Amino acid sequence: MAEGLIVRSLRDGSLPGEHAPALCLEDSLPSPLASHSHAVFRHLLASLLSTGTGTAVVLVAFHRSPSFYLSLLSPTFHNSIRLLDCYSDPLAWKSNHHPPPPSHSPQNITLLTNLNHLPHFLSSILHLAKDLGAQGHDRVTVAIDSVTHMLRHAPLPSVLQLLTNLRCHEKISSLFWLIHTDLHEPKVISSFEYISTMIASLQPIVQLPDYANANISASITSLEENYSKAKFNVRLKRRNGRVKLLCEELLIEQGSVKFSSVPSVSSVVAQNLIPKVQFNIQLSDKERMDRANVVLPFEHQGNGQNIEIYDGRRSLSESQKDPSSTKIGGLSEQKRSNNNKSEKGEIHYIRDSDDEQPDSDEDPDDDLDI
Amino acid sequence: MATGGGQQARPTRPSSFSRVSSSSFSPASSSSTSTSLPPGVRIGANGAAFVSSGIPDLDRILGGGFLVRSVVMVMEDADAPHHLLLLRNFMSQGIVHGQSVLFAGPTKEPRSFLGTLPSPVVQKEGLKIKHDVSDVQDKEKGLRIAWQYKKYFGELTAVDSHNRDKKQEYSSDFDLRKPLERQLLNSQNIECISTQDAFDLSKLQNHCLTFVSKLSLKDGINSNAGRIAIQSLCAPQCGYFEKDWDMLSFIRSLRATVQSSNAVAVITFPASVLSNSISKRWQHLADTLLSVRAIPDEDKDLAKLLTGYQDMLGFLHVHKVAQFNSQVPVILDASTYSLKLQKRKSLVLERLNQAPVEGSSGVSYATSGSCSSSKGSLLDF
């Protein structure tokens, strides 16, 4: 479900007047094989492309060569993807020393060497997006293989500005990128989370054991599970200002990724947010009405009616309405219901003995001799 | 203390820290000096001047509003845009009162933010309020309260009846669905600056200085109050983002600027994108510190714990409240409030109420939650 939500949100793009949705895919060392997150990245790419003719992707490839990506996708999709090749020659070594060969590269790969200059970078992406738009794809998604590589060449604020500008641009309908959390300071990661609308991260299913204390051998074998499974945590920022937290299990089988929902683990409720919660002792209007309708157990109700003494043998008219009332001789019972089970609250008062005069037990202190 | 002489005539209550006691003295003082105050400014406890924050509940919680000559900081939550609600109400209140407003935001077109400002709710005044005032006076005559208790009851009703008219002017309820009228937005004294492409904060600093100097030039002695609203000052996409110390010195100079003039500055910043030590420094520089938090959606546990969970937008936490001319700290009854929209239009702050406990389980959620967090092993007898 989490994965479906993400793909749908990326595919749908943004509402008019809003910035494009952006997914930040986070990868970390404890979840072994960084390829897990790359597998998710490729999976998202494939699912976006396969959803229909409308979606097209501009892929900025830093980590793997463009031909790798092209080989992953079936040839039918080769028209709906444009690759910006930042892998082959990021530092412009080849193009400085040898003139570039006559382009054998297929149509959809564009080589980029000047990675320091981000405005040029931005304009190349937009140029490719326009290309795709001209071909009839109305929804263009930009995928960046990894932002970590971008940060090698350009400072953080400019990379963030680039991403924000991409989000604001009308040609781009959604955006997602991969980032390796261990290679950056926490504030860098939180800056990327700040500008994104969805944050997905992979965590290991089995945590690393505490080597000092635990029984090592048993836990190491269970670590094997980490190689095939991982926990997929998603945090979605919704339009109403709330955050949706989802957690799923990720299975990697023969290179393909499968998502399955995990038996619900109780998420950490924001207990730390609520230090002092008071009880609401105000009554709602309905509760006030119910309270006014309660017949008090005193025989003298104060409304001028005859005093009725309930002796446990005759049934009062009120008790007929409430079949669950209990009549235990010798005990006085009070039942007051404020919820919507019964409209009127009811109280059953059973007198102790017949000898007492009505209202004689008003003041039990009367017989004290002070 | 300059105001010490004036205060001796009134009975003092030695152990009352609550703001209610001190604000009861405001009717007497404000009615005498109201003519000389600029619009939208009120004199409160200890002779301090307040401007309204735009949210009547927040004014009440902070004991009158935002202190003039102070810096208010709001810590944002990266997941939710609730700080914008606070900023919008703050700016609208200033525009409605005719005060000068300076807005700085990390977008290319900060002027477009003005289009989202809410307009005040039109009150069906007249009849209702006058009726209340006469009602209260009748009640006071009928109810014979012993004199020493009268000071508790009397001040509440007196404050309400005196300030009812003033309250409508001082702080208005805003309808978040209705945008503010165009004519008000086109006035001369609203400035907007973009901070996105700036590589350092010197330009913003100069703007603030000229803004504040314009304030004092206007009327001479009783110049209009000014409002400075800065959105997401340390937003990561701004060019000066990595210059931590430059940002801190900007805030210090802003504090000095604001303290020597009739202005209030509200700065929002996402604390999560700063490193811990720098974030602490930012928080210490604030006179009043608030933070907004997002709440998880469809969280069954939270829904069980709190009443009204469905209507809540988020939480507002009050960390620090500014004090002026006094050594007595402000101790609030509750520091976390929930943000809600009343009738989907105006913003209200409510205290958190615990939901009724399930009768069958017996143990309330709060205690069971704390037990589970310790993860102790179950005792087996």
TrEMBL record, chain A:
Keywords: Cytoplasm, Nucleus, tRNA processing. Residues 310-321, 333-352 have a biased composition (Basic and acidic residues). It is found in: Cytoplasm; Nucleus. InterPro entries: Elp5. GO terms for cellular component: cytosol; elongator holoenzyme complex; nucleus. Pathway: tRNA modification; 5-methoxycarbonylmethyl-2-thiouridine-tRNA biosynthesis. Pfam families: Elong_Iki1. This is Elongator complex protein 5. It comes from Rhynchospora pubera.
From TrEMBL, chain B:
Its main location: cytoplasm. Pathway: tRNA modification; 5-methoxycarbonylmethyl-2-thiouridine-tRNA biosynthesis. InterPro entries: Elongator_complex_protein_4, P-loop_NTPase. Keywords: Cytoplasm, Nucleus, tRNA processing. It is found in: Cytoplasm; Nucleus. Residues 10-36 have a biased composition (Low complexity). One of its GO terms (cellular component) is cytoplasm. Residues 1-39, 359-381 are annotated as: Disordered. Coiled coil: none annotated. GO terms for biological process: tRNA wobble uridine modification. CDD domains: Elp4 (cd19494). Belongs to the ELP4 family. This is Elongator complex protein 4.
